[in-house]
């Protein structure tokens, strides 16, 4: 009898150990998949989309295996799950009732959106502790600066090929691992807030904070060097919002010095690598933007997209059908194939109608409401820091989406949705620790009552 109890106890310990290993595999597998997308040109080709979708399915099966080992199914709810389920329901209606103008494309996009949803679900189930959030933040910050360093190196010695080896099939303005420099900027907009928040928080040692500030400056610098006007404006907005948050919190010499150091590093990098070409590029933003608004092709596409919406205002033409339907509404002549609306909001209206657009507004409103509650103590709490970094990245990509289609790029869209789910998820669990002594300098920036 005693021997039987010993075996049962040993079996239970083994099951718990295996479940913990699966949990770690799930967590790092999710973010490995998210980092895989940008490295394979944004995961825009059929083979890379298949890898993302099949990888997500494998992770879901691992999660189910963990539930089986635990002898119960435990689901942590995220407020975003409800609008996401409603959005999927609208896509199903388009497919079943043949609302879609081209069911094949709608079904293909539906599988992709299911992959985004499963990644959000898994991130909510696995990213539960502040120690996990710290590790993931460090991994993503290192990943971002490595990609930025590669983009800088490629910019110094370009040959018109991706990774100096592959010629893009349809051309484009290559920057980093992306065919389109605007989509590279979109990736950086999502990642830059992570090292930026780390550099001005108390969640890491001073050496790490300094390194994070330098990494953020390099990443921001590559957005400017890429020449993406939408990216420049989006990152300006992110930095402005973050600056307002800092100064509303407490005006101090430490904040001013930290921001000044960041600006000095950024300007030095841009002056060293950008030179006159960058200056002329930045100076042309307003002039070229006016040209596009007065009679440019993008404005014509926006107007045509609105006319598409007017013909099917409730459920739209079907998810993923914009390039198929658009030629009948095109109001200008061109030899180019218009595959996207170059405005994610217009494309969403045309493809999903007012119901789909309203669901996405609901999704963003829920995210904003829950994220705002969690950022109060971001300098000293992992929950607040993770929420603030993800929220700033989301704001940047949403602004850029007014003039581009980053959310039609699977790699960027997957990161966007996972960041939304992290910003809205329940607070992270934190181990209780004894308070650390606070130096006089730190008390100037962080009140003693907030130090954990």
Number of domains: 2
Distance between the terminal alpha carbons, to the nearest Å? 48 Å
Tell me, what's the shape? globular
Q: What's the Cα radius of gyration?
A: 23 Å
Q: How do the helices and strands follow one another from N- to C-terminus?
A: HHHHHHHHHHHHHHHHHH
What is the helical fraction, as a range of percent? over 70%
Number of helices: 18
Number of separate strands: 0
The profile of the biggest β sheet is:
none
Q: What number is the mean pLDDT? A: 86
Spans of at least 5 consecutive residues whose pLDDT stays below 50 are 284-295, 438-452
Derived from helix and strand composition plus strand pairing, the structural class reads mainly alpha
Strand content: under 5%
Q: Would you kindly provide a brief summary of this structure?
A:
The chain has 452 residues and is mostly helical. It is 71% helix and 0% strand. The protein has helices at residues 2-39, 46-69, 81-96, 103-126, 130-156, 181-191, 193-199, 206-226, 229-249, 253-273, 275-283, 285-295, 297-311, 322-325, 344-374, 382-400, 410-424, 440-445.
